[in-house]
Hints:
two-stranded antiparallel ribbon; mainly alpha; 2 strands; single chain; 14 helices; globular; Hypothetical protein af1432
Amino acid sequence: MNRSEALKRITEQAGKGELVFPTNVNASLKIQQALDDPDCSIETAAKLVITEPLLAARLVAIANSVAYSRFGGGVTNVRMAITILGFGTLHSVVTSVVIRQISNAITDPSLRAKANQLWEHSAHVAALAHVIARKVSHVDFETAMFAGIVHEVGGFYLLSKAQEFPGLIENIAHQTDSMDELDETPEVIIGRAVLNKLMVPKSVVTAVESLWYGMRAMPPTTLGDTLLLANELSPVSSPLDTRHPATRLQAAPEIDFAIGDGTLNSIMAESDEEVRSLTAALLI
């Protein structure tokens, strides 16, 4: 089965809501649903988080990162981490675990390598979006980080299906397949279906769509602008990025503009430790 046929098959499944996730993802999705309950307390949330060791470790690491150093660090337990980070960031971290669970189900070495690179890219984008939101675009930084975490979730799903559909990912940078009967590309349709399955808020879906369609303003003023800028500044590219490698390498150094008394480059240089610390915490 070639790439076009595989994409058509998966797109049809997505359109019917027949997305298939690894079994352990369902447990994390149940935690996510419980956290969405407005009556969910910090104590209840902490008990849920503790059942997932990876989730608990990542949450505490983020609370101790330089990005949250204003709270003094020294966070040693899940309850304290949730109190500091809030339910917005907790929701982001749960979703990050879901994405890692999807990628960890991949057994093919070459696909697993792509999934690892895609997660490293996503972690960088999430950390950069967090900083850009706070210091440049002044949109909600928790939402910006969440958008960075989920912006390639459709790509993770495609990688997980590539074992079932050989040829789906090979030479993706050179593929220009189109499906004339569809108004949107298969990747967009699949990506939106996965975002909906993960109960991603409409505002974040809209921001991710901005990235898909390349709509960005300089300087950034919206969540979509913030996500696009973070994506372009990421030092690790997505293995599913269809742009020519030379174009990707040239894009980031050329991006700069005035922000108040400084510039984007000066702000990002000052925030380098914050970005690295938050990225490392997400990569646990």
